[in-house]
Amino acid sequence: MSTSFTPERLLSMARGFMESRVFLSGAELGLFGLLATAPLGAEEVARRTGASLRPMTVLLDALAALGLLVKADGRYQTEPSAAPLLGADAPGSVLPMVLHSAHLWSTWSRLTETVAPDRGAPERDLHDPEQLRAFIGAMHVVGAPVADRVVAAIRPGPARALLDVGGGPGTYTLAFLRASPLLRATLFDRPAVVEMARDRFAAAGVLQRVDLAAGDFYRDELPGGHDLALLSAIIHQNSPGQNVELYRKVSRALRPGGRLVIRDHIMEDDRTRPPAGALFAVNMLVGTEGGGTYTLEEIEHGLVEAGFVEVRLLERGQRMDGLVEAFRPAS
Fold it and tell me: What is the per-residue pLDDT across 307-328, written as a single tens digit (0 to 9) for each?
């Protein structure tokens, strides 16, 4: 009997380790026993476990997003039905097997090298051309099925000059060009990425409608004269301070009255919803210096600090499809 796969099913299999790693880390740190009898705040949990507050808070929120902890009034407690199953001395506890699975993690992580000693996966280095191409290709695979829907929710309307900041493979630029025949776009990204996007635009027959601008938005100014700007899947990799600086650059690149749209995880105030965003915050914790997923209030605060007005939630989203808009003042 053959198996029918979809992109969503395959990607779900590829990401299945994320929930497992969060669960195993909670067990290794003894969080389920610590929080079994009474709720504690993140500061107290960090103190008792010898952990730093920010990473511990991210982990606690992810465990709550998975339902293993219950979060209320800023405090966490082990979910009642899970508490006896994860207690260190409770009859019928599965904790010893969970901890054994945590030990297996390191050996299973060497599976590729065990099968083919010379083919072990290298550390992620997006300066490596092959890894960069794979990463940018992955961004297109993830974005292509949802880009048209996202652009429809944004409603580009009368916009005639789009700036796609860190636009990667050009997936969203292409969706905007399909939706607005009179729109012209500028894609800004690193030089090697711009060349990958060039190939995609040429294949789609729209290269004549796109200006390709190479640079680094952490160091360089953005090209100006636009009435619509997109930050798609960018802000999660930055600290709040880095985002404010980026918002200021976007503002300078917009005409007065121009509009900025952010696409990313938009977290509820308790940071455990949507669950995909809470798990992605762990991804940013281990993969960036100061990145994370942000609430609407935090995003609004950064935009207002950068001079934007009329901040509004367009879509809450369940994955990385939340949308927030803001405007550069008209005068």
Answer: 999 999 999 988 899 999 999 9
Measure the CA–CA gap between 89 and 112, rounded to whole angstroms: 36
Half-sphere exposure for 299 (CA within 13 Å, toward CB)? 29
Placement of tokens 């053959």 in the chain: 2
- What pTM was estimated for this model as a whole? 0.91
Q: What is the edge-to-edge ordering of all strands in the sheet holding 40-41? A: 40-41, 75-78, 69-72
Give the closest residue to 257 by CA, choosing from 162, 331, 178. 331
More confident residue, 123 or 311: 311
What is the rounded (10 degree) CA torsion for 9, 288, 153, 13? Answer: 0
Compute the half-sphere exposure of residue 291: CA atoms within 13 Å on the CB side of its CA: 20
Give the residue numbers marked as catalytic: 236
- Cα–Cα distance for residue pair 217/234, rounded to 1 Å: 11
